[in-house]
Amino acid sequence: MPDDSPPVDVQVDTCRRGAAQTRVTRMSTGSHGGRSFVLIAGIGVAATYFEFLAPLLAEHGEVYALDLPGFGGVPASGEQPTPAFFADQVEAVLDHYGLVDPVLVGHSMGTQVVTEVLARRPALSHAVLVSPVVDEGEADALTQAVRFAQSTARESLHVALTAFSAYLLCGVLYFLEALPYMLRYRISDRIGLGRARLLLIRGEFDRPSPRRLHSRLVTRAHEARRWEILGGAHCVVNSHAVGVARLILRHLDDELPPKGRMPAAEAAVPPARHADARMVLSAMASRVAEWFSAARKDENGVERAKARHARLLWDAYSPGS
């Protein structure tokens, strides 16, 4: 990663639709004219999952990472937390910022939300589904809990802590309220309603998003590629963000074969090139500050912490390679 990367601009806004609100973290270098990227995380988690992916994409287009209602400390709206409801919020973001043809990137349950948006907006040309769920043959809470446990055993401590803090902010009650809707959603039946070119990505050890589901989705989609990242698990969007970013950019350039596997060494997030103990402690402090601010419903504190954390990671990794 070159040292002459442009400075990153980070802004945190709130987009409202009726009683619902979505927190939007925007990241841009201001030196590009490419496509915009809209990042949607899975059940219980939020934009923190994209802490490494967002800077990598920001060099090529403005990034909008979303904290949907009820997640990441954003208040729940009182409406049923269905994929269709969350798709309403994504559409509100697209309209609010005037995004005409952004690249939608969903992870886990976020792929259900993206699928719903694509069904409504056939003009959208590209989208990425990372670790789509749920396999219809295993759409019950107990089986999914086992599959997530199997995948979690392959995740790093960093990913586990990121997920744990997000689940605390979401709360058990809201998580359990949203879970049945995620389990009932039939992504295989809905994926063919959109017209976008799709890229499906999974980690080698991603038990909640098995290969058979990806095969089914590719068959039923209008147009789709499928790729696997070796060594990755369900949270490949974080732990192997370099590979996910490379696949996304090659997908947009139409340079990817229909099917393939990426070695873990090419995909994993490398050690920071510009980091010392002070930087690591500062990054940890900004993440803790974000968590406590969200728990206190202090949106100004969340905005400051998110912006500080994003800039620290940008400086440490100097995206641009």
Could you characterize what this model shows?
The protein has helices at 53-58, 83-97, 109-120, 141-152, 157-170, 172-184, 187-190, 211-220, 236-239, 241-252, 264-267, 277-295, 299-317, and strands at residues 9-17, 20-28, 37-40, 63-67, 103-107, 126-130, 197-203, 223-229, 259-262. The chain has 321 residues and is α/β, with parallel strands linked by helices. Strand 1 (9-17) and strand 2 form a beta hairpin. Helix 2 crosses helix 3 and helix 12 (277-295) runs antiparallel to helix 13. It starts with 8 loop residues before the first strand and ends with a helix. The relative contact order is 0.15. The model has no long low-confidence stretch (mean pLDDT 89).
Descriptive labels:
single chain; globular; 9-stranded mixed sheet; 13 helices; 321 residues; 45% helix; 9 strands; alpha/beta
Sum this structure up briefly.
The chain is of the alpha/beta class and 321 residues long. 45% of the residues lie in helices and 17% in strands.
